[in-house]
Amino acid sequence: MEKFSRRELSPGIYLNSIKDDRFKSCKISVNMYMPMKNDTAAENALLIQLLGRSCREYPDYMSLNREVNRLYGAAIGADCTKIGDLQQLVLSVSGLDDRYALNGEKLSQELVKLLCKMLFEPKLEGEAFAQYDTQQERRKLLELIESEINEKRGYAITQCVSLMCENDSFGIRRYGSYEQVKAVTPQQLYTAWKRLLETAVINIVVVGNPDAGVIGEMFSEKFSTINRRPENYSTRMFKLDSGVKEKTEEQEVMQSKLVMGFACNIDENDPNSADRAKLMTLVLGGTPSSKLFTNVREKESLCYYCAASYNRQKSIVLIDCGVEKQNVEKAKKEILNQLEQMKKGNISEFEINAAKLAVADSSGIVTDSIGGIDKFYTSQLFEKEIITPEQAAERINAVTAEQIVEAANCVELAAVYLLTDNKEEL
Amino acid sequence: MEANIQEIRNERLNEKYYKIEHKTGLTVYVFPKEGYKSSYAVYGTDFGSVNTHFMSDGREIISPDGIAHYLEHKLFESEDGDAFAKYAVTGANANAYTSFEKTCYLFSCSSNLEENLRILLGFVQQPYFTDETVKKEQGIIGQEIRMYDDSPDWRVMFNLLGGMYHNHPVKTDIAGTVESIAEITPEKLYECYNSFYTPENMALCVVGDVDVELVLRLVDEIVKPGDGKRVEKIFPPEPKGVASEYVEQVFPGSVTMFQLGFKADGDMRLDERQAAACEVMLFALASNSSPLYEELMNRDLINESFGYEQLEGPGYNGVLFSGESKNPQEAAKTIKKYVADACKNGINKEDFEIAKKAIYAEYASYLNSVSAIGGALIGCDFTGRELFRTIDEAASVKLEDANEMLRLMLDPENTTLSVIKGGTE
């Protein structure tokens, strides 16, 4: 069964271990956090891709991938995401646990060595990353940005967040803009790499059976050569700065995508207020028993999906649905009506219990997979206190009906984004 | 308890599961995972989107496209209420899906397993279709179809299958079309239900914090015995060659992407050794450490979205390569060139050794996840394979097996290229 432990290896560097011997594989990741800034987002995003591509010893992606695949098809991850006001850069390796290697190989240590080489000994040309590598990774990142439009639901959500948070660092795109990525130079990447190692808050996370102590020592040794001056990073709750922002974008689409963003305006001094907003969101649109699913989808047959999600770091609720163009106003009205019902206290015990039970039950599911464990604990690394899934479920369970209504009454519409087709209505 | 219980073990991975031939005709799998808090159950029928034409009780039936998927949606409603509402009282996370060849109903839970199994076994056996409830679903599924119409990834695949197959229904969208689902009536749903939702045609897999006794007790109590009748699935004759070598769709608001399909003999069913050998062969040929990948990447013909898969079912078999590309024709030409070279010279020995370990580790890692095991067990049941044997075969597969699969699966002279031409460049 999983067991979480955490210690500070040196200022701003934490070793998090979730020891669990049930899995055939393991995952070791270095999660690095920098403030999300308009002028550094693109270079950080490109940097993490470069670090995942090669290193001095394996100077091109073929030799690196070959080495990784030789270690039983292990996988390297180089990801860039947003968590609150921070940019999260993750370099990770996942692979078969030592116990199941066919010839007794010590795979996890090999993988950590490789991870260290990628992070600390990249392939450089003087004080710059290699020109050709930069060009290749830049092309891939630009194509990744271009392809965001292919997945319309995710695209619409990103657009709504950018609209809603245009004056907030949460509105900055995780990879920066297309133009910014295009402009990044190999020299800038070198500076960004130095800055990352010196100033990022770093969380090493080990999930599975490997000996985290040994892994911690390997990283400590490497970091001891770096002139570390980490800063304290935090996230500010989103607040409405003006009226409701609205934007309609036209494309040739068969189905319109409506996304509505809300500020939750929770009391930041009350440690339980986020749990209340979370449960309120689940009752509104987080399960098949929620108000949005049972009314907008099942009763009105307007949508295949209509759901609400809560972002804990920024205290934002997003509601999104896919709907026929002529039904957009009807869907919007019905969504707002369901929120209004919550505010008035028209919430049944059945609806509340269904949401609480779903949270309680999923707390047992989340720890039965490496991915679930990794995501659950990593998402909390900036919380004041790190709790287990069971504790998280207990806190949700303690929220009362009155508190849900109270949380709903703090919710304020901030942005409405619509992606719709450009044809005239018949 | 009248049931034939077989224990299947794997010493190398220290795992075991039970296969039970129940007296009702239902095949039941129970895979206990020590130390796991959660369970996953999947109850499925060997009936998917390709089964629109069949003989049942001596009667020939032709159903509208999309009926298996429609039936999946409608089965959630019983006379005594919605299955989601029943699960809401237990907290389980329930869902269902329809693929080309099967329809599955599933849940994950970490408490109330018995009650959840009762709900699952209960509602799947209680069809309740009325004119009103069937009509109501048209709006919801209509929006699901529209959602896929806007997905270039989905369109590039169905355009490809439309190019590869002359007649086989694998080329038809799983959910059908807005027009075809308008023809669905309660009677047509009952025809399919009564033909395919019989214990002989179904399997139940329960994985995780579970024991055989509980599952058998519930199956004994709830599952109604079948009448032993078998439904006969009918497929139109399918020529060996592809229907067209090139298909294209202009898709504003998308980047340009492709799928290249190699059509293989649709009557060929891979056994465990062949299935493992095929995966190893594809890894050796096209993984991110293969010379093919290197050339495609260095010439800017692909990006990280590049991938491949084998697609097999009743009457169809083949391999698909896919990805975004600024020049799909050149990417396809390069893939075919490497395939032709490999067919001539065989797979490189070192690439093969790397691939073999990688596929063994990938298969072994499936056993981490209760949902992955459940999905693999039900897939194995309907294809006649055994889960552990597939993993063992990956660990022991030979180079000549991989080369044989290369020749059987990849004919560079029998391909279709499907291109989505984007409008954002």
Q: For this entry, what is the oligomeric state of its chains?
A: heterodimer
CATH uppermost class of the largest domain in chain A:
Alpha Beta
What is the alpha-carbon Rg of chain A in Å? 23 Å
Amount of beta strand of chain A = 15-25%
Tell me the structural class of chain A: alpha+beta
Q: List the strand order in the largest sheet of chain A.
A: 1-2-6-3-5-4
Radius of gyration of chain B, in Å, reads 22 Å
- The low-pLDDT segments of chain B are none
The strand order across the widest sheet of chain B is 1-2-3-11-4-10-9
Distance N to C terminus of chain A: 60 Å
Q: Give the count of helical stretches of chain B.
A: 15
Please name the CATH architecture of the largest domain in chain A. Answer: 2-Layer Sandwich
Mean pLDDT of chain A: 95
User: How many domains make up the coordinates of chain A?
Assistant: 2
The CATH H-level homologous superfamily of the largest domain in chain B = Metalloenzyme, LuxS/M16 peptidase-like
What is the arithmetic mean of pLDDT of chain B?
A: 95
Number of domains of chain B: 2
